Amino acid sequence: MSLYTALISGVVFPLQERLKHHDTTRVHREMEQSQYWPVERLDALRISRLKALLSHAGEQVPYYQALFAKLKFDPGSLSSIADLRRLPFLDKAVIRANTEALKSAQAKDLARFNTGGSSGEPLIFFIGNERVSHDVAAKWRATRWWDVNIGDPEIVLWGSPIELTSQDRVRQFRDALMRTKLLPAFEMSPQKVAGFIAEIQAMRPKMLFGYPSAFAHIARHAQDHDIRLDNLGIKVAFVTSERLYDHQRQLIQSVFGCPVANGYGGRDAGFIAHQCPAGSMHLTYEDIIVEIIDPEGRVLAPGESGEIVVTHLATKDFPFIRYRTGDIGVLDDQPCSCGRTLPLLKSIEGRSTDFLVAKNGTVMHGLSLIYLVRDLPGVRQFKIVQESLDLTRIQLVTDANFDPAQLPNIERGGKARLGESVTVEVSLVDEIPPEKSGKYRYVVSRVETGNPNPETPT
To answer: How many domains does the chain have?
Structure first.
């Protein structure tokens, strides 16, 4: 660690967090210790914190005051995590209908957030200082797993309006002090990408952070133009907010000359899991209880695939209790070779809207159609939109290496998977714009999948 990084991570950043009334430094210090605790000790901590969260909700949060009274639920009677199953799920519709009633009477300095909204109604919710402190501390801990730290030079490739509309002078000064360079992922034209590559070369960052699709796009551009980026000393590329595909990981690793560390979470659900250098996705086990449920809402055992439901233990100000994420994943019950005892998320299989439904009702992952187009010569970008059981559209951005004779083959392949009576429209387009958030969606299905919480694609 350089002297400058030590100064930023040890003095400047903790001071900033204290001025913002965040308890990040203390939480991070405790997390550095608890990641090696025996699981039994971690479980005892979680039960204690869950009781505290539910007790506060029952006393101070109007929505839960009414719910607990209706169910005759006593938080003090809770003896295990399984007792959470006595409570109903929290979903986006419930939050939209009860936004004010979900605020704690003791909450202050709440920050308003929203997620989604690109093609449906956005979810508006609130986050307090406790939640921010815990999420930032968890991210900080995961960053240190890769031998980088706050204060090391960092390129952030992001598209959220929250970050990109707050670039005032104070923010710019802080980013410069922290050696963080924020690049907007809204537009990825060849000219913009060339500019991003120049910025990366000039900065020589120790770490990258952003969308896997955006970094893969930059890597492909560098590869096509024989630009070397593997000699800059980049130690790790942190990717999040989208599904990470194997071909993206391989491309980013090859071009940037560094490992790719996957992270999973969201503004609503929190910092759920992060990959360690041994390759495992460790849960933020001290803060977040993860349940995997089937379409009927039954909790599944490790190894079984279902919807990810989270309870965030640092959300007294605006509780997220048994919150349906709409994501599909699998828990693991095996230990990691890295020595950390934090349990694992075995896989993240995508959003419920990343799955397609065949005409006969069979649910299949979007990869079933992605494989039809992804590796074809000349395909630069693609997007698959299942409008209904009877119509699926496939958009392709191609270059001179693409053979138009492949179009009927793609159509036939789509019909073979979805059903011979299904209309599969394959079209060539000049560009595929990202979502309003700056993310790219490879697969969007507007068909009910049978998952517990299907939603309009966002």
So the answer is: 1
Q: How far apart are CA 397 and CA 379, in angstroms?
A: 6
Q: pTM for the whole thing? A: 0.79
Q: What is the pLDDT of residues 356-393, one digit of tens each?
A: 888 988 767 676 788 788 778 888 888 999 999 999 99
Residues forming a β-bridge with 392 = 386, 424
Residues 6+ positions from 382 with CB-CB distance below 8 Å = 370, 373, 374, 394, 395, 396, 397, 432, 442
Record the tokens describing residue 224, joined without a space: 């096509």
CA distance 137 to 143: 10
Mean predicted confidence (pLDDT) in 227-242:
94
Compute φ and ψ for 144, nearest 5 degrees: -70, -20
pLDDT tens by residue, 392-415: 999 999 989 899 999 999 999 999
The residue segments making up the domain with residue 396 are: 367-441
124's tokens: 């508006």
> Is position 407 within any domain?
yes
Residue 260 lies in a domain: no
Q: Is 71 exposed, middle or buried (0-12, 13-18, 19+ CB in 10 A)?
A: exposed
Q: Name the band, by pLDDT with cuts 50, 70 and 90, for residue 453.
A: very low
CATH, residue 415: 3.30.300.30
Could you read off the pLDDT of 34-64 as tens digits, one per residue? Answer: 999 999 999 999 999 999 999 999 999 999 9
Residue 331, CA atoms < 13 Å, CB-side half-sphere? 21
Query: What average pLDDT does the segment 98-114 reach?
Result: 92
- How far, in whole angstroms, is CA 290 from its chain's centroid? 14
Task: For helices 24-34 and 129-144, give the axis angle rounded to 10 degrees.
Answer: 50
Q: Is residue 43 part of a domain?
A: no
Domain-embedded: residue 422: yes
Check if the beta carbon of residue 232 is closer than 8 Å to that of residue 200: yes
